[in-house]
Amino acid sequence: MTHDFHPTMLREYDIRGVVGDTLSIADAYAIGRSFATLIARAGGRSVAVGYDGRLSSPMLADALIEGINAAGIDALNVGLGPTPMLYYAASTEKVDGGIQITGSHNPPDYNGFKMVFQGRPFYGADIAGIGTMAAAGDWESGEGSTQSIDIVDAYVDRLVEGFAGGAYRIGWDAGNGAAGTVIEKLTARLPGEHFLLFTDIDGHFPNHHPDPTEEKNLADLRKLVAERSLDFGVAFDGDGDRIGAIDGQGRVIWGDQLLQIYAAAVLQDRPGATVIADVKASQALFDRVAELGGQPMMWKTGHSLIKAKMKETGSPLAGEMSGHIFFADRYYGYDDAPYAAIRLIEAATKLGQSVTDLRGGMAPMVNTPELRFQVDEVRKFAIVDEVLARLTAAGATVDRTDGARVLTGDGWWLLRASNTQDVLVARAEAKDEGALARLMAAIDEQLALSGVVRGPQAAH
Questions:
Q1: Which domains are present in the chain?
Q2: Choosing from 46, 57, 91, 104, which is the catalytic residue?
Q3: How distant, in Å, are the alpha carbons of 23, 56, 122, 341, 439 from that of 125?
Q4: DSSP conformation letters of 321-375
Q5: What is the pLDDT of residues 278-314, one digit of tens each?
Q6: Would residue 104 show up in a list of annotated catalytic residues for this protein?
Q7: What is the pLDDT of residues 98-142, one digit of tens each?
């Protein structure tokens, strides 16, 4: 018995597809059997499984568990909940790995799989290996068992363990995603007043798309914060591993700005610690970390890559523009948006300022959002290589951590290839609008030299 996956499914950080088109029950079975085979060959015996609120998730979970059991590995089914709840199970239960079935922030007809293997991220060559094993039918055989447990309350207990925050008036938008039940239970345990939006878990996402990094999806939260005069608001993506936030004035607090707040609090307890952010983050963040006495580190975009770098460096805090925030000082080092919300409350308390004042005190920067535009999949990495070659020949100041991040007198611009889509990603930041226009012109000039025109925005 062998199995071939659709070529678009096996991605750098996870496995993802369109249900009924590029993703089927047979795929879920093959993923379970391949992953469990790797667990068995590493001497493991069990895998935790969780799933989000998408309509297709329960049937994919059944097929995944069937595949896990067929390789002779036991499955621990933790049921419906956010991805960080599955990570929590993989960190605290007697299991050797974990798989969350989730479409994250993708449209409702998508679904996918995020994995952790013996406490480490499972990505890149690991995921490619799943495809190789399935194509060869290189699987173990056996009869594993399945046990279902409810860990929602234990997970919420852990979220509030040692909580040292004050009482605030906060808006919470779960976006009908998988974190809804957790947010209800969590806010019932916190001091202050809490106003909840869309905590019913609904795979149709009837109110707005669950991606808090797109400003249009924060409209309902903004309205709530304004109408109730709240201190701030937080929002979550479809599987609860990415956070969005707005202050009391309705201003967005982007991922790199949240990191500035978190860094100020964490570095009080861990002076001199390394704080990691991805290449899309503002220079203001790296400068602020250095000013606070920390060691700023720029790293590649991708939650799996960031988690691996944290382990390597012993960093207590890391994050991405996309809202993945990682705490390893008093927590497990994975991206957990409900926990990040808890830490925002604690940071404001510890720093003695409101979230609105913390946001307002940041250096004003003129920048673009993340600009994503489609290119030929075969060309995307080659285009970045061509740009790098021209910049090097011209003597430009370039950081090659992940694509090309170019520093000029006007500010900086970035061009990188997405690891998961046929997309190039650009971003620029400057001291004023005129300088930003010059940076964007430099990006467009380099793209034109490689035969590319920056087109309309591509979805995540």
A1: 15-150 (3.40.120.10), 154-360 (3.40.120.10), 366-449 (3.30.310.50)
A2: 104
A3: 20, 27, 9, 33, 35
A4: TTS-EEE-SSS-SSB-HHHHHHHHHHHHHHHTS-HHHHHHTSPP-EE---EEEE-
A5: 999 999 999 999 999 999 999 999 888 999 999 999 9
A6: yes
A7: 999 999 888 899 999 999 999 999 999 999 999 999 999 999 999
